[in-house]
């Protein structure tokens, strides 16, 4: 235990804090394997250890590493035309997030975001129950989801809910859903790195070295996630994402 404490000393972490962060890394691996809805819990755990804004810098390299595993594993299922619709406004959303990130109240922002997620999910559930099979085709839907995903991705690493809603609306099968999301977030998270390093200064050599200690957690989580996903069919997968998204939004509200 003393040896482990000495390893963590440069990072000003207790053993308990590292265990919590390592658990978040495992959950991140599970989530990137396709088990959706864990994003809010991951963010909460990392914020508990490192604080709100600082945790975004610690988390972003871990997300890129987990994204690489997801891209490699699910690459063949990627639907590139959906990325072309989302990415332009998602890039813009990240830039807006960089700009307002220091000024807006994080609590107020997350509360507004949670309400918007709940309203959108309610509409999606209504469409499911009414057996509405029409896919939203107007450019404003993809652009709006992309913009919201970009803003929330930069400020709170919580873009997953909006992206999930979009892919659900497009009625993507399970593997295509995961493969397309994998490339989407890999591209966006790499795009965000320079802003964390040079603008917000939440990422430095010390936090990067700490990330290296948590890579085994990502690997273990990704293996667990892939194993679990093989047992879930497309219909159940859609229901689980709906449930996880609602729970995540509620957690944001009461945080």
UniProtKB/TrEMBL annotation:
It is found in: Cell membrane. InterPro entries: TM_pro_TauE-like, TSUP. The chain crosses the membrane at residues 12-30, 58-74, 86-102, 108-127, 139-160, 180-200, 212-230, 236-254. Its main location: membrane. Keywords: Cell membrane, Membrane, Transmembrane, Transmembrane helix, Transport. GO terms for cellular component: plasma membrane. Belongs to the 4-toluene sulfonate uptake permease (TSUP) (TC 2.A.102) family. This is Probable membrane transporter protein. It comes from Lutibacter maritimus.
